[in-house]
């Protein structure tokens, strides 16, 4: 089954896909390795938030996704 990673907003363009599935378990280091370098760079810079199982993580490094979980990469929000 694995972990489903969703790329939202401009991250979809950086990733070149809407979503992907990776093997579980998935932690922070595994996530960085699973996405392309441009997306990983955005994650490391702190501009991108991470939602796991429907909740935004205050500390992205605490990611511990299991089979069937969904991880959404949330781009920075701009006002207007």
CATH class reads Alpha Beta
- Morphology: globular
Number of DSSP helices? 3
Structural category is: alpha+beta
The CATH fourth-level homologous superfamily: Beta-grasp domain
Instruction: Report how far the terminal alpha carbons are from each other.
Output: 40 Å
- What is the helix/strand order? EHEEHHEEEE
Query: Which percent range fits the helix content?
Result: 25-40%
Protein name: MoaD/ThiS family protein
InterPro entries: Beta-grasp_dom_sf, Mopterin_synth/thiamin_S_b, ThiS/MoaD-like
Pfam families: ThiS
What's this model, at a glance?
This protein is of the alpha+beta class and 80 residues long. The chain has three helices and seven strands; from the N terminus they run E-H-E-E-H-H-E-E-E-E.
SSE topology sketch:
Blueprint: E1 3-7, H1 10-15, E2 19-22, E3 26-27, H2 28-34, H3 37-44, E4 49-52, E5 55-56, E6 64-65, E7 70-74
Parallel strand pairs: 1-7
Antiparallel strand pairs: 1-2, 3-6, 4-5, 4-7
Question: How would you describe what is shown here?
Answer:
It comes from Qipengyuania citrea. This is MoaD/ThiS family protein. Pfam families: ThiS (PF02597). By secondary structure, the chain is α+β, with helices and mostly antiparallel strands. The protein has a single domain (3-74), classed as Beta-grasp domain (Ubiquitin-like (UB roll)), CATH 3.10.20. Helices cover 26% and strands 30% of the residues. It has a five-stranded mixed β-sheet with strand order 2-1-7-4-5. The termini are far apart. The relative contact order is 0.29. The model has no long low-confidence stretch (mean pLDDT 94).
């Amino acid at each position: 089954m694995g972990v489903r990673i969703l790329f939202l907003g401009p991250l979809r363009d950086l990733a070149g896909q809407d979503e992907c599935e990776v093997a579980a378990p998935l932690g922070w280091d595994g996530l960085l390795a699973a996405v392309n370098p441009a997306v990983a760079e955005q994650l490391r810079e702190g501009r991108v938030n991470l939602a796991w199982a429907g909740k935004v993580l205050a500390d992205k490094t605490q990611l511990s996704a299991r089979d069937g979980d969904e991880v959404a990469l949330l781009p920075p929000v701009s006002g207007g």
